Amino acid sequence: YTFKLGVEPTKETLSFDSIIFSYGVRYKDYNAYMARTFLVDPTSEQEQIYKTLVKVHQLVIKKLRPGAILGDIYEDAQAMVKKEAPNLLDNFTNNCGWALGLVFRNKNFVIKGSNRQEVMSGMTFTVRTGFDNITLKEKHGPKKITTFSCLIADVVAVLRDETEEITKYDREFRDVIYQIAESDDDDEDESSEDDKGQKENKSKDDEVFVVGANKIKRSLRSSHRTAAQIEMEKKNASLEKVIEEHQKKLMKKKAAEAIKNEDGHVEQDEKEEKVIDIVRKYPSTSKYPHGLKRNQVYCDPERECVFLPIFGYHVPFHISVIKSVSKSDEEHYTVLRLNLFYPTGNVGYARDTPKEMRAVLEKYKGFNYVKEMSFRSRDAHNLNHQMRLIKELQKRVKQRQKKEEIEAGLVEQEDLILNRTGRKPTLLDISMRPSIRKGKCVGRLSAHVNGFRFRTNRGEVFDLLYSNIKHFFFQPCEKELIVLIHFHLHNPMLIGRTKTRDVQFYAEVVEGSTALDSSSKRGMYDPDEIDEEHRERQLRKKLNQAFKSFCNQVLQVVENNSMTIGQGNEYDIPYRALGFNGVPNKEMVLLQPTVYCLVNLTETPFFVVSMDEVEHIHFERTDFRVSKTFDMVFIMKTHLLPDCEDIPKRVQSIPVDKFDTIKEWIHEKGDVTFTKGTTPLNWKMVMIGVREELEAGIFWKNMDQDGEPKPIGWHFLSAEDEQEEEDPSADEGSQYEESSAESEESEDYSMDEISDESEGFEPSESDGDDWDALHAEAAKSDKQKMRKEVEREAREGTKSPQRKRRKRR
């Protein structure tokens, strides 16, 4: 190989020894150049030579500073070669590079000993160092070469305070070597006895595939790992062990605290249970409306009841009893059909059953209920009129109930104290989400004595108190289209017709979409396009500074007025470096951890999980041999309340490579337990079982009500997968069927034999005790089987069928 530039490549086949790769590029009349040396099965001598070259190369880059003399830089490089490997001084290149730009090689700025030119800021250099035609002590490679050359070249830019490397391809020794296996015998001869002992102790995870001339064989990655890599792997293994031990201690700690509280329930504020009374609209028949006519349907919108004629008597039905109403024509008659709510199986009632009807169904469980009623008449006028009134009444009642549900949980705010004396922090021309009205809301946000006031350009006003803000987020515009301030609230607020716990104020840096019509077509290098990008960068920087300054001023106002906002009177910034993609709702978004939360603030609906509200985290589909993604389920503390019907929050399709990062992040929180399993669960059924065990006081214990052992707390989520691996169900089923068949064949014979031998036999009291013990043992076995079936159905996502305990004689 020759280091001379412009040499044409030959048709000679490459051999597995040392390969020097160099190439140059010209783009818009500007030049660039890079070179690397790749070593195949290098000897220890080649390793030392290459490492020396890397040190010299880095020294030259370091010395390229404004004001340095090119000749002095070359002499410093020679001095290092003389110090590290004196025998290589004669093989060192006669220069260490040159300046380049519009000219590939500027002869006036060559880094050589005789050049006294000075380096200036803004110059670009090719740093090119190498050793040429070194005579090796032992032959190397398939061709048994005796000479060796190595070369490294990079393009660097000399800035005012530093030197920036433009070509960033790795050049360390570990990054340019390749292990090629020729035969098993050669590897065995080269490895020492100590290496063999170490290889036996290595796990399969430490093995990599190495390409040979005619085959593929395994080689240990550890043979080429640096001390830093080995230390990092030990650190990761140690951290995994620390996380596992911490989770065990944390689960035991939670169990001890729950048992200490006697019932194991989550601590909650004592609130009076709201009991829904049975609806009674008419205390007596004398209060019936006067418009009733014999054998006619009548709707009373004032009392929200419908009178139905049954055997000549008017019977009032509250509108909450009626599920739907329809009308059909049959020959000469018009038929009015009313479908009513009724109990359905084990569930109790349909999901859309009104709360008034639920109270009736729960109080009178053993009663028979009417499913539907039909009335027909030759005159359709009254039926048409009453059907219209019933539907209007249903619509009005549903709207009222929806409004009550929205307003439930709302807390009345105090009045905002305006700052009328001093200067108040203000953000101009920002938008609000959710919007106060239809369409986009643009206005100004000001910080006052005890809260914020947002005033739109049309004059609408929205006030938000500091005391209602649980989390205060500031997200700068980094790889996003908006810069924002986000507030997660303690108590929900009603904004327009939306009940929400999240309020956001943002400003757009660029439009989310651009019209690509014919009039806006511009070239790739259009100066206007470049100017627009520059303006966008300036606007991005300006908005980030404005929002950050506003946040700091708000904290100062809060401190001066002795108020509180967020966590510890600080704003939180999402860590984009720790972010990962997932699907919390219907689309893939970037989820970013903060100090106290896991959030996605850019897309709507917002996703904010406060970690102090999380009871447990479960990872699903963690069999990474068959899946490249996994799911993350957040079980909140409110999900453990007896009257809670919500299911845990699920984040789907998280990439596998983020699993360890997420575990470390949870571990740093210190007080959140997590488990993992290979199958997705039916969380509605799982949480029903958890609440039942909490009410029974056995969830945090290692024994069930019958004294049988069970996993403590949330360990059952991972114990199910371990049980499946240890105890395959297919084998059990075949053995059970075979044994049952054999018992049926021998049943007649055994019973006859027992009856003959038992004549004249009188059972004793001890035999009765044995039968009682057997009966108790059989009942306990049935309960265990039922428990396993419920857990299996929860994993498979099926509803548990109604079970009846078998009676034993």
From TrEMBL:
This is FACT complex subunit. Its main location: nucleus. GO terms for biological process: DNA repair; DNA replication; transcription elongation by RNA polymerase II. Residues 182-205, 720-809 are annotated as: Disordered. Residues 297-454 form the FACT complex subunit SPT16 middle domain. Belongs to the peptidase M24 family. SPT16 subfamily. It is found in: Nucleus; Chromosome. Residues 225-256 form a coiled coil. Component of the FACT complex, a general chromatin factor that acts to reorganize nucleosomes. The FACT complex is involved in multiple processes that require DNA as a template such as mRNA elongation, DNA replication and DNA repair. During transcription elongation the FACT complex acts as a histone chaperone that both destabilizes and restores nucleosomal structure. It holds the Pfam family Rttp106-like_middle. One of its GO terms (molecular function) is nucleosome binding. Residues 194-205, 772-798 have a biased composition (Basic and acidic residues). It comes from the Eukaryota.
